[in-house]
């Protein structure tokens, strides 16, 4: 399950201080496509451990997720939380 911003907010409210929230989604489809290419390139090394159904399903999963990220339908975030707040404020390294 991919939690929504609302679900994440509700789960951390009164427990943590939100220090930083970065959205990687705009570029993540590229990562998934590279994983797909590596999977296909190396399939012959692992295919004896898996059946063709797994092969098809894993390819479908990688490219369908890539498409969902490209269409901006799903998101990938890096969230930095602190228990009581970072003294002086959090400094992002981006």
Shape: elongated
Q: β content, as a range?
A: 5-15%
Q: Helical content, roughly?
A: 40-55%
Order of helices and strands: HEHHE
Mean pLDDT: 95
Can you walk through the features of this model?
α2 runs antiparallel to α3. 52% of the residues lie in helices and 14% in strands. The chain starts with a helix and ends in a 12-residue tail after the last strand. It has one domain. With 94 residues, it is an alpha+beta fold. The mean pLDDT is 95.
Short description, anyone?
This protein is of the alpha+beta class. It contains 3 helices and 2 strands, in the order H-E-H-H-E.
Question: Which descriptors would you attach to this protein?
Answer:
3 helices; 94 residues; 2 strands
Helix and strand arrangement:
Blueprint: H1 5-12, E1 17-23, H2 25-46, H3 52-70, E2 77-82
Antiparallel strand pairs: 1-2
Helix pairs in contact: 2-3
